[in-house]
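Researcher: Please generate the 3D structure of the following complex. Treat every line as part of one assembly.
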Amino acid sequence: MLSKDLMVKLYEDMLMIREFEETVDEYAKKGRIPGFLHLAIGQEAAQAGAMAALKETDYKFLDHRSHGICILAGTPKEKVMAEIFGKKNGICQGKGGSMHIADVSVRNFGCNAIQGSTLAACLGTAVAAQLSDTDDVTAVFFGDGTVGRGEFNESLNLSGIWKLPIVYVLINNMYAISTPARNAHPLENLAEMGCAYDIPGLTIDGNDVLEVYKGVSKAVHRARQGQGPTLVELKTYRWQGHFSGDPASYRPEEEVRAWKERCPIKIHRERLLSQKIISHEENEKIIKQVKDEVARMLEFSIKSPEPEEELAIKHVYVGREVSGK
Amino acid sequence: MLSKDLMVKLYEDMLMIREFEETVDEYAKKGRIPGFLHLAIGQEAAQAGAMAALKETDYKFLDHRSHGICILAGTPKEKVMAEIFGKKNGICQGKGGSMHIADVSVRNFGCNAIQGSTLAACLGTAVAAQLSDTDDVTAVFFGDGTVGRGEFNESLNLSGIWKLPIVYVLINNMYAISTPARNAHPLENLAEMGCAYDIPGLTIDGNDVLEVYKGVSKAVHRARQGQGPTLVELKTYRWQGHFSGDPASYRPEEEVRAWKERCPIKIHRERLLSQKIISHEENEKIIKQVKDEVARMLEFSIKSPEPEEELAIKHVYVGREVSGK
Amino acid sequence: MRVISMREAINEALHEEMARDNKVFVLGLDVGKMGGDFGVTKGLWAKYGPKRVRDTPLSEAAILGVANGAAFAGYRPVAEIMFADFLTECFDQIVNYTAKAHYMFAGQLKAPLVVRTPTGAGMRAAYHHSQNVESWFLNVPGLTIVAPSTPYDAKGLLISSIRDDNPVIFLEHKMLYSFKGEVPEQTYQIPIGKADIKKQGNDVTVITSMRMTHLCLNAAKKLAAQGINVEVIDMRTLLPIDKETIFASVAKTGRVVTVFEAPKTGGYGSEIGMMIAEEMFEFLQAPIKRVASLDVPVPFAPSLEDYVLPNEIDIEQAIQKIVRF
Amino acid sequence: MRVISMREAINEALHEEMARDNKVFVLGLDVGKMGGDFGVTKGLWAKYGPKRVRDTPLSEAAILGVANGAAFAGYRPVAEIMFADFLTECFDQIVNYTAKAHYMFAGQLKAPLVVRTPTGAGMRAAYHHSQNVESWFLNVPGLTIVAPSTPYDAKGLLISSIRDDNPVIFLEHKMLYSFKGEVPEQTYQIPIGKADIKKQGNDVTVITSMRMTHLCLNAAKKLAAQGINVEVIDMRTLLPIDKETIFASVAKTGRVVTVFEAPKTGGYGSEIGMMIAEEMFEFLQAPIKRVASLDVPVPFAPSLEDYVLPNEIDIEQAIQKIVRF
Ligand SMILES: Cc1ncc(C[n+]2csc(CCOP(=O)(O)OP(=O)(O)O)c2C)c(N)n1
Ligand SMILES: Cc1ncc(C[n+]2csc(CCOP(=O)(O)OP(=O)(O)O)c2C)c(N)n1
Ligand SMILES: [Mg+2]
Ligand SMILES: [Mg+2]
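Model: Done. Output below.
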């Protein structure tokens, strides 16, 4: 049994993700956020459950749909939001935006907008942990579509043979843009692909945050013990289109409705209430707290200035200048 | 039971590969053949058995160790050897050499010296066969090491989901240069990697030409019937180093000796003799015929002139000139 | 004449070519029912069905593999790579296979394929969705690179590209998809390898392509008021280079400014400029000047991206400087 | 001073750096017990063991993935890619990850890694084992490219590359591995970004690198007999470009010939030449002339390869032409 504190934390975390995503979605639609925005509404259990199973010094590699991971990693959340707004006070000073958020101080090594590329790079932090004899695990988050990339094979093959401390967190939301996973991969349960690499696979209900937490914890434990990688598949669904604004007309409404019924937040809330872990009043309070917190982030983000032009010519090289205009 | 003719043909084919390889090896060591030469001595059963299971209009993609495939594909064998010598009368006019031999007239679409690249390109001829409603199968030959490349995943995933008529002929000779397969891949039987793609895998004694023929035939049959790809693993061993001249000191002598004991030609010869399919005299005659034939190829190759310089500026573009010196 | 967008013009070319030649087929991520990430393949799937309009898994090397193999087998695949930045993931197929297939087998194979891909910055999509990639391919003999700036050119050039027996990388600047212009309803071709003088002039030759063409034309208009008569050459085909048109113009003006969107160092302008410095030296009355992006990756925040990209003022100033030299 | 080969010099640099800094580790295909395909990593495995000298599977993207991730985590990986031609298979990691990691997260990550790789033609190994690849990377801000021509430069530059906090692509011309020269036994550094005047002269500036440096020096010797006094600049670092040294020379001579081994169009010489045409126009007394390979892939037959590559006579004639202009 998990502690009550943890049960509540997982609830708060999911609420936080939901509120955060809805807020940036709103501001993207208002034209206040530049670029593409990939939202994880509906996938909160996968993100919150997985993050709760990791410690701060574990290395994390994210994909394009990872705001939730970023805000749960320990970074001041308003700096994540400001980054998405492309502002100077963002955690990457506005250089990264939604698809390139990192905070190395909490070992969030960043999202990379090339699908599959983190599957390769995650090998390196795992080797680093092995070389330095620490028990830090590397978690890499990626989607069902990304299983199609070549790096999937190169990564699992290498980590399988070197027994690297990697947790592959495969968030199977059943689509890669408009392409259903069943049209893109021969197996239904993608975790079973671990069979090709002698890597155990776990297929988990990604909408039940406790199942996610337990499954990922098991994988993390294996990795910490030096027993090698695990491929954890979290089955879930994104409620919105591929990006904020995508009408996603390629999906049957029926399907969307059914998945919304299985809202991960609702599932867990009902559990907390029915098991009397929180009361209705406490629930209302938590919700209000989350909303207030996100409102503060929003204010911070909006007030934050744009980055100055000189920033554009910084960081190309360490210790070497490039010229501006 | 296979016909006697086929049994004898398989023997002749293996002898032919052996004699061909020993001849080019000798001339490479004499400095008469430029570049790298990767020999398949010891792997004759895999090459001859697989080729016998294919028809001429089947598409073939080869790797760097594929002289044997080329000479069994229907190409005038002396043109294959002349190509290896880099001569004008070679099947690619000396442009390709050992690692880039094609003969499109017999649907040998060529070797490509980038490991893994044919695993991607073979998808295209298979799609072409589907689009044009022919029953031509695509066979792609590759080694155990090449399983590490990203294209392995992209190819099997796509062919698995599109049920493409592909026969993956994985020649597992237990090494990629100095790297033992057991250090490079978690599974011992690489055919089992098909499990990740719902693709049947067959692990076969690659030194028994009849087993190879039967196994590959089964896969070819499946593909022709529209049932999709098969991953056929042929376990064998290369007697020499990675390339002609490589001392291969990375392998235990014991291991080499044991595999030489299991010479694919010897195994099959003993069968032919003991089953009285050929007599000792016939055997001697076959051997002599093969030797004579290869001697003629050698003469052809040596006599053939070097390609002329103008050839270097041809074929960059179809119908467009590039300038010479 | 009828006015349509570049997106529609390209779409029309695809429709017409698919109707004309059943060897033409389309493939890529989400090109089917969804009609492509930028809507360029709209309606093809409904009309030609899933065999000729193929949604693929997220496997860029496999996409190019299908294109290569099918082209070798006589088809005319048109592959879409969702963003040009992802060409990194099929770079081997293009550079080491597509480009060399015709040459290395002495003309036996042809690769009449087209890789369509959205390129260029301006969308606030940063590092992995904004690059100008032509330079990655400039030193690869065997490739053709087409890069239209108007709907008219796009339609005619795409039709020519599909009919060409050589492989073509067809760059579509994503900021031009909604740009409108006159386009004939009937089928027509624009020859590959011919630049277009978008504005005649005799004081200075400005050589450009894609989105920059329009900035150059605007700048030319403003400069006309100052009595500077600019000739604007839109390359349209980046490789092979139309020396004739360029040299004729330089012979007339003696002054050259190149304007391309990629970072300056190693950009396309360097090749054009060098060609002129080598072969037209006697005509030059001033230094050759490059206008280009700063030598930095494409950053996220609008203030940064705008600073990094070349703009009309940069172009005007460069032209003034060269004219007044 | 002691005379050793370039192979030995590079090997020595690796030994010294591994001894000095335990964050340095080596990885690649067959770099361990076998000591690398070209024998460059010999002895490292025996001395530093399999943890710090890591044989990998045939997975170039994974090799770069390990290098990237480990570098991000504070290590200094030195990856060997067996032939530069195979960089196509990890092109994404390098271009979209290594090069941009420092920039896109606003300096939070560094990628202090080295990719060592044999480059260049002359081995009769054709298309996929002969290319000069620097142009693929020239337009990618964030990368450093080093390309030594002598054992002395190789040792000092590799040590500097390993200690540099920026990612370095370290090109080793395979035809120079056995080239010998004086090399100090102690550790020393040669600054990155500094070209070297290999021969002083004031009639004409010849700018070159790697193997071509030696051809240029030979040509210069012959031309000296004709009274032509050639200055030979060996770039040593291809990126960033040492403008200062080049411009000082051009200011003196007013005449420029660039000599690089890759095909002419889009080659490195174009960048150098353009830079001069742009910034040193007033000093130029003659056209800038490129000596380079023909615009074709590297063919197999010796007669063809020799024809395609630039040779001493080409260089001599080009210099004569420019001097007599
Ligand atoms: C190499 C590459 N190809 C294509 C894309 C475009 N793209 C971005 S997200 C995406 C779908 C990814 O699907 P999945 O991995 O299931 O993640 P999800 O979006 O469902 O969270 C695609 C195709 C990309 N970013 N990188
Ligand atoms: C992408 C790529 N990486 C590395 C190489 C160098 N190389 C050539 S053959 C070979 C080993 C291949 O092993 P395997 O696939 O088992 O075939 P085998 O040589 O055993 O027949 C390697 C590493 C290459 N040609 N291409
Ligand atoms: Mg998905
Ligand atoms: Mg092998």
